[in-house]
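To fix ideas, we quote verbatim one protein's residues and fold tokens.
>
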Amino acid sequence: MDRIKPKKIKPEAGIESVWDYPRPPKLEKFSGHIKILFNNEIIADTNSSYRVLETSHPPVYYIPQCDIKMHYLRISSGASYCEWKGDAYYYDLDCGQKTVQRAGWFYSNPKRPFREIKNHIAFYAYKMDGCFVNDEQVTSQPGGFYGGWITKNIAGPFKGEPGTWGW
């Protein structure tokens, strides 16, 4: 299988390149506005989240449970592992007559550099009806595995696009 060799897109002023993000990733407080819609309901609404920045990935936003309508979420089966953050667990989302499995994930005991996101929840944008950063609707990171959110101020190429699995 041929692999695409990543080629950094030189961003314009004010645009972040995911190729300038660090590896290992870093955690950053985010005070911008985050809103998530699902089945005509606002599921999350906050100005107090975190974002994880990692080379080749758009930011992943982690929202505190106090700013999420937790009565729509239920723990899902299974788990996954991140070498940087630890064991991830999932939530299913049930709202009205609409359900989505593994809508989001969290770390109940994250590794030291990521302690601040303990029990904060990140959502897959492609599974929601709308995810917004500062009122801009995001595009989900390609591939369905990763949960990054792409906005107009983020430049790729992004891990998850065809041929990027080996990056």
